[in-house]
Amino acid sequence: MMDLESTPNLRLRVSQKAESILRSGHPWLFSDSIREQNRTGRTGDLAVIYDREDRFLGMGLFDPEGPIRVRMLHVGKPQKLDHAWWQQHLTTTLDRRRNLFDPQTNGYRLCNGENDGWPGLVLDRYDSTLVLKIYTAAWIPRLEEIVGIIGEQVPCERIILRLSRNIQDKSQPFIEGQIVRGKPLLDPVTFLESGLRFEIDVVRGQKTGFFLDQRDNRRLVESLSHGRRVLNAFSFSGGFSLYAARGGAVSVTDLDISPHALAAANRNFALNLDQPAVSHCHHEIVKADAFDWLDSAPPASFDLIILDPPSLAKRESEREQAIGAYGRLTRSAIKLLQPGGILVACSCSAHVSTEEFLGSVREAATQSGRLFTELQTTAHPADHPATFPEAHYLKAIYLGF
Fold it and tell me: Would you say 382 and 322 are in contact if contact means Cβ atoms under 8 Å apart?
């Protein structure tokens, strides 16, 4: 493990524009904004940033390779980032979630990266299992200490480490899916969300195993599902579908191209068959490309359709194509809706703005020639705060036809 105290602090001076951006609370310092540097920085060094007048501006974790050169931990008056600081930093983060959930929900986000002052680090709870995911190798030298602090403050059976693909070859001695604290994982992890049980793969599953950020939208779908035939396109492990079934849906169809996702949806339904509404709902799975299937399905087949695709723009160059794809999905889905039906369209693409996404859906709805009412729009839930522009990825719109 790197000795973080063996060399003098890494001191940086930045451009005037970067000074203003950092003082405004933005958590990233890009490489082209650095004007002076006292030495070569190592991955995970604590970079101390000064302004043009040699006044302390802030501190962050240094990454010598990424375009985001420093991920900010603190801006303002000088502070000593010792063990006690990290302990208090986590306490403050956890306190923001203290009263958000009752015992019927034990799966939620405990730390949302930059938005909680932990840039490039996410911590999710699934009952007694915690999943820690990091997106920058700058955390690796401090990971042992951070894991220890988490274990002290959050009672759990284990902490599992997940690594973004871009750092998996830079994470020694840690590896993807490693249990970094606590007991071995002998059985599938299950957790409660709004009283529904879900089984997840915390070691190999997408994100940290489940899309916790859609909880509020799932609850809304439940409230709209009574007596309806529901299509859950891009269904993944059937989260929206289970809520719809409990809400009184007559039938639910899970549509996904992944057999593993559909198998998980079946298992999740089986976990909840003790709930009468779930056991009475007809559950069907369809393995197909959602774009193609929606284009060819019989018209007026459903009363409620959820469109929740994976990110359609993983980089800025894909933004225009993604906007067009959202429009195509909307047009196809509207054709499948009965009069009185409801469309729920979601986007998790950070490179597509809320205005661009909502505009694409509204335009497609208008072009359909059908009368519709905009019921509501939603964004991030309380445990997934978004505190700077690039963090606003999640948006959804509800339309009634």
Answer: no
